[in-house]
Design a protein that fits this description.
Largest sheet: 6 strands, mixed
CATH architecture of one domain: 3-Layer(aba) Sandwich
Number of helices: 7
Family: Belongs to the ABC transporter superfamily.
Radius of gyration: 18 Å
Keywords: ATP-binding, Cell cycle, Cell division, Cell membrane, Membrane, Nucleotide-binding
GO biological process, one term: cell division
Subcellular location: Cell membrane
Helix content: 25-40%
Organism: Caloramator australicus RC3
Distance between the termini: 31 Å
CATH topology of one domain: Rossmann fold
Bound molecules: adenosine-5'-triphosphate
CATH superfamily of one domain: P-loop containing nucleotide triphosphate hydrolases
């Protein structure tokens, strides 16, 4: 479902962030993207979200060459991708329910469908009785569950997670990983950037390691491979 063909990204200051990346991620895979700071992981994700353009190469997602996608079509393309961040990024003036509903409103989902779907999503992430609370009334783990529900709201085929457990204690981190694993088992492809060695080592998923803009390792049932 994701194909990077000879992708390079050189930033304006002539810094080579990614160099000739070739890879394939199949529908339904769970992939960890690891590597030291500055390796090019964020650049990889920004390219996938079409927030930046490659200097060379093509990116194909679900059969579409996104490097050629017209500007008008970018919002539709992004609707098919859910994104989960380290710092949750919930809207602080909206309740749990409204945060999830808002993601659907901006995708023009009917209010009838929103009313039907939000409770389903809340049940999935285990927050059925928290719908009226505001983000500041929730624990970090609960906030991340809301963010995951929001990421799933428009039924994306791909979820990108950027350090989703970075602000959570070990118990909450594992609960979030179990949730992501369940979501993956139901067919959603997951690409997760992380520095969490114990999580990568225990999950035994595909691990792609970047260093200085190059893939140095790509293993099924891989390990983190660094000491931090
Ligand atoms: N807008 C930019 N302009 C110039 N250089 C940049 C820009 N964004 C990133 N870089 C450089 O490109 C390289 C890759 O950065 P990137 O953010 O992709 O790394 P990363 O693997 O995500 O690191 P971290 O784990 O610290 O988030 C780094 O050397 C960084 O300094």
């Amino acid at each position: 479902m994701i194909e990077f063909k000879n992708i390079s990204k050189v930033y304006g200051n002539n810094h080579i962030a990614l160099s000739n990346i070739n890879l394939n991620i199949k529908k339904g895979e769970f992939v960890f993207l690891v590597g030291p700071s500055g390796a090019g992981k964020t650049t990889f994700i920004k390219l996938l979200l079409k927030e930046i353009e490659p200097t060379n190469g093509e990116i194909i997602v679900n059969g579409t060459n996104i490097t050629q996608l017209k500007r008008k079509k970018i919002p539709y393309y992004r609707r098919n991708i859910g994104v989960v961040f380290q710092d949750f990024r919930l809207l602080s003036d909206k309740t749990v329910y409204e945060n999830i509903a808002f993601a659907m409103e901006i995708a023009d989902v009917s209010s009838k469908d929103i009313k039907r779907r939000v409770p389903q999503l809340l049940a999935l992430v285990g927050l059925i009785n928290k719908e009226k609370l505001y983000p500041h009334q929730l624990s970090g783990g609960e906030q991340q569950r809301v963010a995951i529900a929001r990421a799933l709201a428009n039924n994306p085929s791909l979820i990108i997670c950027d350090e989703p457990t970075g602000n959570l204690d070990p118990d909450n981190s594992w609960a979030i990983m179990e949730l992501l694993n369940e979501i993956n088992k139901s067919g959603t492809t997951i690409v997760m950037v992380t520095h969490a060695k114990d999580i990568v080592d225990r999950m035994k998923k595909r691990v792609i390691a970047l260093e200085k803009g190059v893939i140095i390792r790509d293993e099924q049932r891989g390990v983190y491979g660094y000491e931090d």
